Amino acid sequence: QSVLTQPPSASGTPGQRVTVSCSGSSSNIGRNTVNWYQQFPGTAPKLLIYKDNQRPSGVPDRFSGSKSGTSASLAISGLQSEDEADYYCAAWDDSPNVVVFGGGTKLTVL
Amino acid sequence: EVQLVESGGGLIQPGGSLRLSCAASGFTVSSNYMSWVRQAPGKGLEWVSVIDSGGRTYYADSVKGQFTMSRDNSKNTVFLQMNSLRAEDTAVYWCAREQGRGVITPYFDYWGQGILVTVSS
């Protein structure tokens, strides 16, 4: 059972805008920033968003992050087939002072 | 170019020990925070441990007293000594460079390729 709650799956068609949600509590998302990672099968996660809505160099601006209260969202616009992957949110949790992850969302491009 | 290369994984019997290594290039580990993150088969990500630039280490409750993280500055390498291994420690382990700790939620900007640890008799 992950501390942060994500839907296990999401889907969209090419060109569509999809969002992945991440729900937490006042001890994590409510007080701390959120990061997002993209992971393809058999590979290491890749940092997609940090500090709620910041993109590392090289990440397309089709990917965006937002946060409100104790929930965060990752939005992918102009969905492409290569976006099919698992997406994980992460946040610092004040108790017990560790980074916690969501359970991951498998995004399927139909 | 930043690169992280893990080694030392494999099949180990319950109760056994393994030491994972993570050799870094393109930056200096002693000037950075370095973490280990793991993923059990078919499961999500779990942060395991971190060593900060001062050499202090912190662990997830699930491995505290069981795993020990260290580094060798001369080899620009970090290690994870894993003792008393259990089936639930079976996972792919990544080392990752960490940024932002103490200011924002730490994020992992560079990852190794991962190394599989299988604990089974």
Low-pLDDT residue intervals, each spanning 5 or more residues of chain B = none
Radius of gyration of chain B in whole Å, from Cα? 13 Å
Run of helices and strands of chain A: EEEEEEEEE
From the alpha carbons, calculate the radius of gyration of chain A and give it in angstroms.
13 Å
Overall average residue pLDDT of chain A: 96
Protein model, in words:
- The complex is a heterodimer of chains A (about 110) and B (about 120).
- Chain A is an all-beta fold.
- Chain A has strands at about 10, 20-25, 35-40, 45-50, 65-70, 70-75, 85-95, 100, 105-110.
- In chain A, the strands form two sheets. In chain A, strands 1, 3, 4, 7, 8 and 9 form a six-stranded mixed beta sheet that branches. Chain A has a three-stranded antiparallel beta sheet with strand order 2-6-5, with no helix packed on it.
- Chain A is globular, with a radius of gyration of 13 Å.
- In chain B, strand 4 and strand 5 (about 45-50) form a beta hairpin.
- Chain B has no helices and eleven strands.
- In chain B, about 0% of the residues lie in helices and about 55% in strands.
- Chain B has about 120 residues and is mostly beta strands.
- The termini of chain B are far apart.
- In chain B, strands 2, 4, 5, 6, 9, 10 and 11 form a seven-stranded mixed beta sheet that branches. A four-stranded antiparallel beta sheet of chain B has the order 1-3-8-7, with no helix packed on it.
